[in-house]
Prior knowledge:
Elements: E1 2-9, E2 14-19, E3 25-27, E4 46-51, E5 57-62, H1 65-68, H2 72-76
Antiparallel strand pairs: 1-2, 1-4, 2-3, 4-5
Amino acid sequence: MQGVIKSYDPASGVGVVTDDVTRLEHELALDALEGSIFRMVRQGQRVIFDLDERGLATRLRLGSEVDLGTPDWITTGGPTA
């Protein structure tokens, strides 16, 4: 999945990412950055992520708009169903 970091507290590791397609918010799993070369993310940062069985965002990988492409909802005026 692709999304944008809505919030992140580096002290606690608590954060939220918004999915580009559905615009749903997903809490970050506490180990979401495990294995990443980065120790933290910042608000507004574009990421690629997976959802675990609990619906938490995990396996964050960093991306850019060029890498991820522009979400359909930006060009069509709303989320795609």
